[in-house]
Amino acid sequence: MTASTFDILDLGSVPYREAWDLQHRHHQRVAAGEKPTLLLLEHPPVLTLGRKAKDGQNIVVTREYLASQQIEVLEIERGGDVTYHGPGQLVAYAIFPVGRKIVDFLRLLEQATIQALNTLGLPDARPNPGYAGVYVNDREVNGKVYAQKIASFGVAVKRHVALHGIGLNVSTSLQHFDLIVPCGLQDTQMTSVQREYDLRGLNREVTMPEAKQALADAFRDVFAGYDWSVPEMTPQPASRPTSPARETRTPL
């Protein structure tokens, strides 16, 4: 594979609804046979509810409180439960053809994220069998052992092409995860690259450009042998209405 097999676009910080429209615009292109695209961006604070969210029962504060903090709540079509996006979290939307290889695709997302975290100096990054996402080593807090989740995954596949993807906590405000039971998981704490640096006494700061480059390089490597063909299908209407949205492209 050459570096041009798929585009990598750095969109900066984009409100969630606007990014949602952008995802669907790119999804329509890729489903029509055009070049796959990896979107890298951050969001202002927002909670999103996946298909398992059950009306937001894992949000532990009132909707009125969230509104007072200007934190929007949106129901979306990805898998999974509730999650948080906000500044300092690297969001990667892989608009890639998947077909029926959904589990294999998720494993590749895990592999790319783990490789990026290794590059960033966290050699213990790993999958957690039975759960989507990437974790680092468990940590004992007040006599209780908690899993340490550093990246969350959630995808949807329509017309054989993926939407949504990865939320990697780089320097995220982890206090915002106290608003929810992240992904509906008990006995799990959310962590970030910066928190791991601090707790491990590494005396360094992570930057978002550094994290984006590490993840972009990992995607290029991990997806080097990927099957980029889109299965034959009967043309279908767009999966949801979209509105015009700003798109600033910064290739990586």
Automatic annotation (TrEMBL):
Marked site: Lowers pKa of active site Cys: 149
- List the keywords (alphabetical): Acyltransferase, Cytoplasm, Transferase
Tell me where in or outside the cell this protein is found.
Answer: Cytoplasm
Q: Which CDD domains match?
A: LipB
Database matches in HAMAP family: LipB
Write the protein's name: Octanoyltransferase
Q: Which residues form the BPL/LPL catalytic domain?
A: 32-227
Report the leader peptide range.
none
Q: What coarse category fits the chief subcellular location reported for this protein?
A: cytoplasm
> What role is this protein assigned?
Catalyzes the transfer of endogenously produced octanoic acid from octanoyl-acyl-carrier-protein onto the lipoyl domains of lipoate-dependent enzymes. Lipoyl-ACP can also act as a substrate although octanoyl-ACP is likely to be the physiological substrate.
Tell me the segments the record calls region Disordered: 233-252
Additional remarks: In the reaction, the free carboxyl group of octanoic acid is attached via an amide linkage to the epsilon-amino group of a specific lysine residue of lipoyl domains of lipoate-dependent enzymes.
Its EC number(s): 2.3.1.181
Q: Where is the active site?
A: 183 (acyl-thioester intermediate)
The keyword Transferase is annotated on this UniProt entry: yes
GO MF terms on file?
Answer: lipoyl(octanoyl) transferase activity
Q: Could you say which residues bind substrate here?
A: 78-85, 152-154, 165-167
> Which pathway is this protein assigned to?
Protein modification; protein lipoylation via endogenous pathway; protein N(6)-(lipoyl)lysine from octanoyl-[acyl-carrier-protein]: step 1/2
Q: Its catalytic activity?
A: octanoyl-[ACP] + L-lysyl-[protein] = N(6)-octanoyl-L-lysyl-[protein] + holo-[ACP] + H(+)
Supply the InterPro entries for this chain.
Answer: aa-tRNA-synth_II/BPL/LPL (IPR045864), BPL_LPL_catalytic (IPR004143), Octanoyltransferase (IPR000544), Octanoyltransferase_CS (IPR020605)
Q: Which family does it belong to?
A: Belongs to the LipB family.
Instruction: List the Pfam families.
Output: LplA-B_cat (PF21948)
Top-level EC class: transferase
